[in-house]
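To: structure desk
From: M.T.
Subject: fold request, one chain
Message: Could you run this one when you get a chance? Sequence is below, nothing fancy, just the single chain.
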Amino acid sequence: MELSNREMALKNAPSREIFEPMFKARWQNMQNIINDSAFIDMIPTGYKTYYIAYIREWQQWSSGFVLNLHSHDFFSTGMGYTVCDIFTKECMSGGFRIHSDDESTNAFMEQWNADELNNVLNRMFFYSNSVGNAILVLTPADGQIYTSVYPVNRVVFQIGRSGKISQIMILNRFVAGDSVYYARDIRMMLNGVPYYKVELAKGTLVTAPTWGTAGEREVPSIVRAQWEYCYGDIRPGVWYRMPERMRNIGCYNVRNKSVAVALQDLPGYSDSTLHTALDVLYSIDYNYTQGQVDQYLGKSRTIIPKQMNGRIALVNQPGTLADGFTFREAVNTRTVPLEDIFYTELPDTNLNGEMVKPTFIQPDLRGEAHRYIRDADLELLASKVGLSSSTLANHLSYNSSGTKTDDEVASENSTTEKSVSNKRELANTAINAMLSDVAYFYGFTGEVGIQWGRASANSARENQELLEDYRTGTLPLRDYLRKRWPDLGEEEVENMATEIERQDREKFDYSEEDYARDLSNGDSEPTAQFTVDSAGRSGNKNQDGSER
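Reply: Done. Structure tokens follow.
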């Protein structure tokens, strides 16, 4: 088969010749982990084109290893993974709290599986940024209900008119020694009633199982522990009705973006954060690889004339030959000859007939050029994915810190904040629905929601502006407290506001006698003025500025 121009260029690239043993070794270690061909084989035909063309590529870049690229030709900087990881940390930064207007529901949810929920939400944000969608899943087992999350490359789903998932197939894999089993968790609504079954069949790490009659009717002992962890005591291949306390099939779609340019034909699907940045990720890896090639080819060398390879008499050296050693024999004592590493032998004279002298050569490694290209690519990558450049790479802000104003820095940082806010808002729809269903399962009827803390702390300037708004009366006390300390819950805000108001009443000791005296003196306003100090706390001053 004739190779394309790009394939020919890569095949003849210096990086392949120099580093291919390293690339192949990494490929041998990574292929069973990265290779998702078995899951792709299980995707229905109508979805397979989209999964191969888009979702698979997103997943590979987010893992830091693109099969057709990093197995032969390029180093991987893992910047796709870094972007998804940064967004995960930013979205989870500031923490969260679960709340409900119903006190009993609120008390229960505060205690319910909080640690596990934190882990699920961390994975949820990474998956949604990586492949565009994450699916939150509630699974009944042994009278309880458990949360999990899957990336869309392990899921195929359909959206009903309500915008909720009406049918879904979740793919799972159990590995125990040399045995590999695949599970298909199928859920659907039928006449308003939710049903599910889980099929189990044997395959390999790279090949899908044969379903149908080859499916297991009993769980093999070698994977029983993994099966029970995921599905409890249900039997494979049997349809079950969801428990009556589950109002739906227990699957909730988390979208990374509100639109899906790549997958617009599939309702409910969304674009990866990396969708428009794949070319930049390629450029970053290419530039890094070329830098490594320059470093390898640019090792220092010494040019020596042939005459230096004459016999060198080694006098008074026991055990040496009478006529000594050549220069080559003296230095090439390693498994890899030093001639291949440190020196190159040339004729005694050059083309002009001049004697060749030993010369030390240090080629230009082009480090500054590679750094300039890298930083330009990182700036572009940040812009494409919706991060501030300083969030993606701190050194980019250091390089230009002397030229940026406070307003420019604040505006740049707001890019990350806006992206995080949008991702949280999209996720909240699915999270709140799941939490409300959890409460309902355990007998609580109140609606449940998630409240996120601010990803980053207020700047000094923002706090000063809030204080000025409070002082002028344009920002009520409770709104001031919420914005000044965004991590506070409503109960904490109310308690703090009540305490401040109590202290204000105690400090404001303006009596009826004072009021009557002022009126008799012709004053239209009380002599005490309500003030707020730099910390946002209230106090009182007389008109002359003295403290009361």
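Reply (cont.): Residues 300-362 form one domain. Let me know if you need anything else for the meeting.
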